[in-house]
Amino acid sequence: MFTILPRFGPLVLTVIAIILLMFGVYHHYNLFYDEYRLSTWQTTSTFLAPALVLGVALFFILGYILSFFGSGIPVPKAADVVPNVGETVANIVNTAAETVNNVANNVVNGANNVVNNVVNNTVEMANNVNRGFNNALRYNNMNQRNNNRRNNMF
Fold first, then answer.
1. Any domain includes 110
2. pLDDT tens per residue across all 154 residues of the chain
3. Residue 147 falls within a domain, yes or no?
4. Nearest to 26 by CA among 59, 63, 61, 53
5. Are residues 65 and 2 part of one domain?
6. How far apart are CA 24 and CA 26, in angstroms?
7. Whole-angstrom Cα distance, residue 83 to residue 89?
8. Residue 13 near residue 42, CB atoms below 8 Å
9. Quick one: angle between helices 10-31 and 48-69, nearest 10?
10. Domain of 128, in residue numbers
């Protein structure tokens, strides 16, 4: 089967499949004739399902066979459907690159702002501490001079 079956074309395989399906339906109907005749949910004259399946299969087979003889379905060329694929892809890539650059710039600018705020606040706090120490030292020096003057007076 593995050596013969792949050499058949799809048309031959389809015809063989339809013939085997018709034989299977015929054999099944003969084998289970009494069950179909005695069933209460259908009448004996109703034999629609197998006929419908065979009819649809034959319709598709005939369509497939007739497609060889006609002009077929017109298939447009890729250039007609999407004429500027290269330009479209380039535009998409450029848009994506600009978006990534904008996001990266926003992240860098945000990080710079945070660092600058932290550094400026730290410098300002250090200056305030330094002013406080200087004021305390001036006050202490002023008190010592005043004490020295008082002690020198007496």
1. no
2. 777 777 777 778 888 888 999 999 899 988 988 887 776 555 545 667 667 778 888 888 888 887 777 665 666 676 665 556 566 777 888 888 899 888 889 888 888 888 888 888 888 888 888 888 888 877 777 777 776 666 666 5
3. yes
4. 53
5. yes
6. 5
7. 12
8. no
9. 170
10. 118-154
| The two three-digit tokens of residue 112, written as one number | 């710079």
65 and 127 share one domain? no
Structure tokens at 32: 């289970």
Domain count, the chain: 2
User: In this structure, is residue 8 part of a structural domain?
Assistant: yes
User: Over 28-46, what HEC string results?
Assistant: HHHHCHHHHHHCCCCCCCC
- For residues 21 and 53, the answer to whether their CB atoms sit within 8 Å is yes
Beta-carbon-side half-sphere exposure of residue 113 (alpha carbons within 13 Å)? 6
* Secondary structure class of 72 (helix, strand, coil): coil
**Both tokens of residue 118?**
């932290």
Residue 24 forms part of a structural domain: yes
CA distances from 36 to 10, 23, 24, 41, 53 (A): 35, 18, 16, 9, 18
Encoded tokens for 107: 């992240």
